[in-house]
DNA sequence: AAATGTTTGTTAATCCATTCACATAGTAGC
DNA sequence: GCTACTATGTGAATGGATTAACAAACATTT
């Protein structure tokens, strides 16, 4: 419910999805209560961090008892707004884009890629996993006003054209796999997934680890 | 060259690939020298952070001049060991795995996925983008001793079986797309790419941003 | 209902990273 | 060579996040 008194740190925000997934799994297993110490073993986050994170959303637990799994599922579900569907468009139906559409976050029924765009005539007019692929030049014509979120899987070189077009139709949240940094509107929230960098920095760490990581 | 005197922070390690890519691009454009202030504009990292990061690898720059682009390309290339090929195996040739193989980090000639594994009989024995797909049960038989790195793109439920098998054949660096956390050997460096969590935390930030991000 | 045990929520301490700001060391022009 | 700039590299200040540790709050047992 996001008690106004406590600020939620960026680091905490990145962990909310992990908490949500874990408590959902516990609920499915029929577990009714969980201690921070036990949850720590499951998700490998220190129990003190868990308690601090949880407390920034209100007093979710009870001393000497722990947390009710049902309450946690409820609270984190509310935080992530899983009750209302998030409709998403995807740009760039290459290998990666197609894989994302096929998967379509099926474990999370609230996350739906509902339409896709490309510029390749061979792809325009087709469907991938039931999702229609439109011509990117028809973006404004095809997009429905409920869509505020986009995933970008086009080559880096195409990204500088794609982002302003998306902002022009009201998109304000973007997840992109093209690492080329762009300037975007102050109202746009953008996140880069840079697979090459992740691999390179992983390798650097692995090659240079004298001590454990 | 990783002067022993200065410790390289984790945050810095994550930025090395960004620096490497940027200076490579500058080199290709024929740029000979670069100031931290100018580089900051390109990659959107504060100039003070850039200077501190660079200085942890030695005195790469010159006062009143800046940095030589050639020197930087050289130094970061050495840090990332781009001179010797890194051969990689991939497990799980579904949508995501196949996309990774097709792409095969082609912008980085040192990074090569050289073989793939699956358990689906329909995939075993085929090739994807020239990369052979073997039966995962033949892992030990097929793997070559030069391979120390793996990418995992199997369903989360299969991951607990896959990781010990990889460790058993000497893999010590793992990049995985299955978010299910696992216990692994202390000598294994593992990194999770959790696409669903990235999207969910992005949406949380976008929905709750009263101030800019 | 008292005693015992458990686990939270939070204060304080610590750690890690970023940012400021400038002495220093070099460049560039003359 | 001398002067006027310029930009690095780094101490010091700041800020953010993690971790330790414990009083207070509740559960459980007897
Ligand atoms: N797949 C990987 O392993 C991998 C690894 C690292 C980075 N990436 C990045 O992910 C992104 C996508 O990768 P991919 O392998 O799917 O690439 P891909 O080349 O297979 O697909 C790109 C798709 O984007 C389409 N496209 C190009 N310009 C467009 C435009 N202006 N508007 C709409 N569509 C356009 C193309 O027609 C193509 O279908 C790239 O930026 C790539 O750098 C991918
Ligand atoms: N694609 C996405 O958009 C997306 C989104 C979020 C998370 N993920 C995660 O990425 C991973 C891969 O996703 P995907 O869409 O490619 O899945 P997918 O189901 O298309 O492919 C999984 C592949 O793994 C193979 N496999 C299963 N068990 C195996 C085993 N024990 N050994 C070897 N191979 C095995 C299957 O035969 C299949 O080919 C999953 O963990 C998924 O949760 C994917």
Automatic annotation (TrEMBL), chains A, B:
Coarse class of the protein's main subcellular location: cytoplasm
Alphabetized SUPFAM superfamilies for the sequence: NAD(P)-binding Rossmann-fold domains, Winged helix' DNA-binding domain
UniProt keywords, alphabetically: Cytoplasm, DNA-binding, NAD, Repressor, Transcription, Transcription regulation
Keyword DNA-binding: yes
Residues binding NAD(+): 92-97
Occurrences of domain CoA-binding (ranges): 82-181
Cellular location(s): Cytoplasm
InterPro entries tied to this protein: CoA-bd, NAD(P)-bd_dom_sf, Rex_DNA-bd_C_dom, Tscrpt_rep_Rex, WH-like_DNA-bd_sf, WH_DNA-bd_sf
DNA-binding region: 18-57
Function: Modulates transcription in response to changes in cellular NADH/NAD(+) redox state.
Quaternary structure, from the entry: Homodimer.
HAMAP family reported in the protein's UniProt record: Rex (MF_01131)
Family: Belongs to the transcriptional regulatory Rex family.
Entry protein name: Redox-sensing transcriptional repressor Rex
Organism, as annotated: Lacticaseibacillus mingshuiensis
Gene: rex
């Amino acid at each position: 419910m996001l008690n106004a008194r406590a600020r939620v740190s960026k680091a905490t925000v990145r962990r909310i999805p992990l908490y949500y997934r874990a408590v959902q799994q516990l609920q499915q297993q029929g577990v009714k209560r969980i201690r921070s110490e036990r949850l720590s073993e499951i998700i490998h986050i220190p129990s003190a961090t868990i308690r601090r994170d949880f407390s920034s959303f209100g007093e979710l637990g009870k001393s000497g008892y722990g947390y009710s799994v049902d309450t946690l599922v409820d609270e984190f579900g509310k935080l992530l707004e899983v009750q209302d569907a998030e409709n998403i468009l995807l740009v760039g139906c290459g290998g990666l884009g197609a894989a994302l559409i096929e998967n379509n976050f099926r474990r999370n029924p609230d996350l739906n890629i509902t339409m896709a765009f490309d510029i390749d005539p061979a792809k325009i007019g087709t469907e991938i996993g039931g999702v229609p692929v439109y011509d990117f030049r028809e973006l404004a014509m095809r997009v429905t006003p409920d869509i505020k979120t986009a995933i970008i899987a086009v080559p880096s070189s195409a990204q500088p054209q794609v982002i302003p077009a998306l902002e022009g139709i009201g998109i304000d949240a973007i997840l992109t796999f093209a690492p080329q940094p762009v300037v975007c509107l102050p109202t746009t929230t953008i996140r880069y997934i840079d697979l090459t960098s992740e691999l390179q920095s992983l390798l650097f760490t692995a090659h240079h680890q004298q001590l454990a990581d």
